[in-house]
Structures are given as C-alpha cells and as structure tokens.
Amino acid sequence: MKPYSDRGKFPERTENGNVIDLDSGKFVKLWQGPQHPGVTGNMSLEVIISGDEVVDLTTHVGYLHRAFEKLIERRLYIQSFPLVCRICVPEPDTNEYGYAAAVEELAGIQIPEKAAWLRTLTLEMSRLTSFLMWLGGQAGAFGLGTIPQWCLAHRDYMLDLFEELSGGRVYHMYIVPGGVRDDLPRGFARRLEDVLQKIEQVMSDIELALFSNAVFKRRAVGLGIITRDMIDEYGIVGPNARAAGIARDLRKDQPYLIYDKLSFEPVTADFSDAYTRTLVRYREMEQSIDLIRQIMAGIPEKGAIHVRPPNVLHWKIPAGETYVKAESTRGEYGYYLVSDGTAYPRRVHVRGPSYTHAVVLLEHLALNTNIADLPGLMVSLHTYPPEIER
What we know:
Elements (H helix, E strand, L loop, with lengths): L11 E2 L5 E2 L7 E5 L11 E7 L2 E8 L7 H5 L8 H4 L7 H16 L5 H29 L4 H21 L8 E2 L2 E2 L7 H24 L2 H7 L10 H4 L4 H4 L7 H4 L20 H25 L21 E9 L2 E9 L5 E7 L2 H12 L8 H7 L10
Antiparallel strand pairs: 1-2, 3-4, 4-5, 6-7, 8-9, 9-10
Helix pairs in contact: 3-4, 4-5, 4-11, 4-13, 5-6, 6-11
C-alpha cells in the first residue's frame, strides 16, 4: 500500500480498489496515539475503519525525539554519548556500542580483551532488559494486565544492576571509546545470578499465563503474518524474520566482540505471526540468560578495561568512513560514521530496524485487521519510534 499523496484529500483508493469516502458514512477516521497504551512509544496512527475492520492506516511520528543525527554532527565526538543512548531508551547500550565501535575503527583503536567481554555482558543484559519491557507490553496490548506488572518489576532488578555498574539506571554511558568506564563491582556476579534466577522463575509463570491463555492464542495466532518472501522486500530483520524461518543473526553470522567464543544458535520458527513472534522472543530471553552465564564464567579476572584516548576535548579523528552493525532485540542496528579529520563528525546515520517495521510493514499488515487487535500487532513487531525520529 502506498501512502496518501494528500493526507487530507478524499476520496482515495486503497490497493484493493475500494474508494474511501468519509462522507459516505461507510468509513470512519480515527486517531490512535500518540499516547495510546498499546502504542510502542510516542507514535500516532491515522486509521480508517469500516465497522471494526481497518481498511487503511498511516503512521505519524515526530512526537518525541528528533534530529539526533544532526545534533551529533554539531558536537565533539565524546559529547555525543549522552545523545546516542536516547535513540533507543529501552536498549541504550546497543547505541553506545555502535557509536563507540565506529569511532574506534576510524581512530585505529583496539580495545583490550576484558573490555570486549564486559561490553558483551552489558549488551546481553540490555537485551534481556529490553525483552522484559517488550513482553509486558505485548501481554498488556491483549488485555493481560498481570504480566506487565511481573515484567516491569523484574526489569527493575536488572536496572538496579546497571545502576551499580555504571551509576545510571536507564542511560548508562558505560561503553566509551577505548573500552568501558569501570570494572565489575565486588560481588556483582553473585547479585547478577540472583536476579537471573528471579527472572527465570517469573518466566515460567509467564509461559503458563500467556502462551496457554486461550484469549491470547485466539487473538494472536494468525495476526500479522510475515511470509518468507516479504523478508527482503520489506527489509525485515531480527526476531520478526527469524520467526519466519530466516536464521539471520549478526552475533552468529558476523561475530563481533566475543560472540565467537559463546555457544548458541539463532532462535527460529516457521510461521511469523504475533503469537510465534512472541514465542521466539521469549526463547531469546532464555538464550540471553544462558549467554550472560557463559560470559560471567569466561570473563578474565584481570586485565585492562580501557585504552586511554587522546585529550577528548581536542580529539581529531582521521578522515574516513565506516559502518558498524550489531544485533539488537529488533535486528540489525548500524552506525554509519564519516570523519573529515576535524573534531566533529562530518556525517552520522543510524540504521534502526523500527523505520521499516513500524512504517512500511505495519501499514501493510494492518489492513483487514480488527481494530481491537491493532495494538497487539504493533507491539508484536517490536519497534521504538525514536529510531525513526533520529
């Protein structure tokens, strides 16, 4: 479906040839969001319905953060770390890694081995934290209010650990050019294991309360089906693609940091609807818990955690360009960075999966959907609007 050439001009034709004429009384235009609890952030949907069926949908963003990329280009390299975290609030560490790794590649910096282990640890902790928030949102979008309480409470346990590690709960700025800011606090491994066991316990309750719930199964099975031939056409990545049987995972396909030292396989399924996408992400949460334990068992006890860069207030990165990518909870997440040899980036571009998933893909999958299931469909695609507004 192509977007309207003129949002306020009717009638317009949908791709199936039906004429949308609001004056006919057959169609109604509604606005969902930007504050609807089913919306994954501050994003608004312009919905055209016939009865309770969605016949057309247009996404609208720009209600939260905007122009991150241009703000970064007007700051010293080190000054941008408080900015990149905010491009994806529930999973800021992926942005920290992408930006730091791009700067390091252009500057010719090789981080110490222990720093690579610590970075991987925080990425998997952040991954688990993000999935906890998402899983609660997915259950809540279908009216299951208990599960979001469980998920957010246990996400807070993870945030406690991030605060202990970095001093910040939501934004960490722990990954910096040259490595990480600090080593693990004393007793951190024991407290982390305690939290992982708490999460495992609540996940067993969630599995029973969600995946065995007749209401959730009836509404989520068959909702928003992504076929294999849509993957490349729509630029679908991450669990949305893996649920359709496409075993693409950058951690495995193009290992970075110390992922080549860890034992795991991409979680896949063979039918990417809202139910299966939820199940795949649930299994990836279990996988992250296992990876965190592998990391804690293999992390070196001693060693440098940081390579000291030049004076960061007068740091001129050699001219060049690079693209660094990582596997976020939503799929491939990339940073394109260009330096012209000055103290400021020449160009920064962030490739977040939400752009394709929340705009083009959502507008396609929403057609013929019951309006009551629209929030559940949106959440099942796992998108964050700031990635679009960057």
